[in-house]
UniProtKB/TrEMBL annotation:
Keywords, comma-separated and alphabetical: 4Fe-4S, Iron, Iron-sulfur, Membrane, Metal-binding, Oxidoreductase, Transmembrane, Transmembrane helix
Transmembrane regions listed in the UniProt entry: 20-39, 84-110, 122-146, 167-186
4Fe-4S ferredoxin-type domain residues: 317-347, 395-425
Pfam family, one: Fer4_9
Source organism: Hymenobacter chitinivorans DSM 11115
Protein name as catalogued: 4Fe-4S dicluster protein
SUPFAM superfamilies associated with the record: alpha-helical ferredoxin, Respiratory nitrate reductase 1 gamma chain
Gene Ontology CC terms, in alphabetical order: plasma membrane
GO molecular function, one term: 4 iron, 4 sulfur cluster binding
Entry annotated with the keyword Translocase: no
Length: 476
């Protein structure tokens, strides 16, 4: 029986303790699971840090407030009420059910059974809430699956959603259902086993109590079912944890730092290039002292920083964090006026391309390389890619996509985790203009007019007020 344990080794703990071969096996599995996850996180962190440095210190209270509202409170999700409510169910279920995961970890390490039951009525409330949320999660997941695969919501389609992104979205839905079924199997078997033995099981089980009639009356079979459910739940969670770095669902972790480090300046405010700013100031004020160029530790001059971005390492590290925080929900693309009117631009694709390029050039996830997955990926696996010259600009993102952007900030406003595709678009356009002089002809004409006439139009400054010559002006 579960409650017949030896507690002599740890007399100060609020729950009885028992050690067995299961505890040793659990420790090995947990160490492997958390260790592999930590290793993958280090690889992703290294990818993000190849970006240009950007000082994001300060404004702590404002950043924390934004994180609480946008990341934790999901403020921007509720612009679309149906998916927002479904996501809220899954999100709250994820948070609350993790309390039970804490109990499973304690039970696995110390050999206890329902170690948090000493909480009494609070424990019953937590378990009962877990059960209700677990059932609601299954219903919400079913609704998500229907919206994606039957209704086929338009923003879940697009050329960037190749074989892997489509498969990934469904895999996570199936995994969530499996985890909930394992949880209910564990609870229902444990509840019926205690009922057969005439012992009260701590906690409230509003859903599992309805499922006990489906289970056998044999105590040995129930113990096996309870253990299968317990192991399936915790091993499933560890597998899910190590699947996240290869999945868009890594946003459940990175959404928080991404929102915290999001821009606090007004939307649409562009950054200036320091070197150009210094040159302009020197032209306007001859007494202005241009700062000395940066040097390497050995005193030699550092290589000049290119204008704009050609590859992922030319973007700021916050832009690369954006790429790993993307949920691929398509809200940005669905409100993009360029995409709506049939242009090639898709802000979601820009972000997904950035992540794919990082994993192509630097570190890829443990399980596989999503950017090279399947025959419907952009590049078939047998293709040998030049990782140095197959850059983000032109290798993944075409100039036609970039120049379709109207810089309206609709994509930035729509993103539920404050991703800023516009910043990456502007940086790549800046590279095209300042490094390659590859602006569209219409822009080159404008540049020439500004240089020669001081205005975007092809008129001499002396003719600027000719339009007013025939206006009637009453004599004073």
């Amino acid at each position: 029986m579960h409650n017949e344990y030896i507690s002599d080794l740890t007399p100060n703990l609020p729950f009885p303790v028992h050690f067995s071969i299961q505890n040793i096996l659990f420790l090995l599995v947990a160490a492997a699971g958390f260790g592999l996850f930590a290793w993958q996180v280090r690889k992703i962190r290294a990818n993000i840090l190849v970006g240009r440095d950007r000082d994001m210190s300060g404004n702590v209270s404002e950043r924390l407030n934004k994180t609480l509202l946008v990341a934790l409170g999901q403020q921007k999700m509720f612009k679309r009420i149906t998916p927002a409510l479904l996501h809220l169910i899954v999100y709250v279920g994820f948070i609350v059910i993790n309390i039970e995961v804490v109990e499973i970890l304690i039970d696995g390490i110390f050999g206890t059974h329902r170690a948090l039951s000493f909480l009494g009525p609070l424990y019953s409330a937590l378990v009962g809430t877990n059960e209700v949320l677990g059932a609601l999660v299954i219903l919400a997941v079913a609704a998500f699956w229907w919206r994606r695969n039957v209704k086929k919501v338009r923003r879940f389609t697009g050329p960037e959603l190749r074989m892997w992104p489509r498969l990934d979205a469904n895999i996570i839905l199936y995994v969530e259902v499996i985890l909930m079924v394992a949880l209910f199997t564990m609870n229902a078997a444990d509840l019926k086993l205690h009922q057969i033995e005439g012992v009260d099981l701590p906690g409230a089980f509003p859903i599992s109590s309805l499922l006990t009639g489906l289970l056998p009356d044999n105590a040995a079979a129930l113990e096996i079912l309870e253990r299968v459910g317990w192991w399936a739940h915790i091993v499933g969670i560890l597998c899910f944890l190590n699947y996240l770095p290869s999945s868009k669902h890594f946003h459940i972790i990175l959404a928080f730092p991404n929102v915290y480090y999001s821009r606090l300046v007004p939307q649409g405010q562009f950054s200036n290039v320091d070197s150009i700013t210094h040159e302009v100031k020197a032209m306007m004020d001859p007494s202005y002292q241009v700062p000395a160029p940066a040097t390497n530790p050995d005193g030699s001059a550092m290589a000049p920083t290119p204008f704009g971005a050609k590859d992922v390492n030319d973007l700021a590290w916050t832009n690369l964090l954006n790429a790993y925080s993307c949920t691929e929900c398509g809200r940005c693309t669905s409100v993009c006026p360029a995409n709506i009117t049939g242009k090639l631009l898709s802000p979601r694709k820009i972000i997904m391309d950035t992540r794919d390029r990082m994993e192509e050039k630097y570190n890829s996830p443990l399980i596989f390389q999503p950017n090279l997955y399947g025959t419907e990926a952009k590049h078939a696996e047998p293709e040998v890619l030049d990782k140095e010259n197959h850059t983000l600009l032109r290798g993944y993102v075409t100039p036609e996509e970039l120049w379709a952007c109207t810089t309206c900030n609709a994509c930035v406003e729509a993103c539920p985790v404050n991703i800023n595709p516009l910043e990456s678009i502007v940086e790549m356009r800046r590279f095209l203009v300042l490094e390659e002089s590859a602006a569209p002809n219409s822009l080159n004409v404008m540049f020439s007019n500004i240089e020669n006439n001081g205005a975007p139009w092809a008129f001499s400054p002396s003719d600027r007020f000719n339009w007013a010559d025939e206006l009637y002006v009453a004599a004073k």
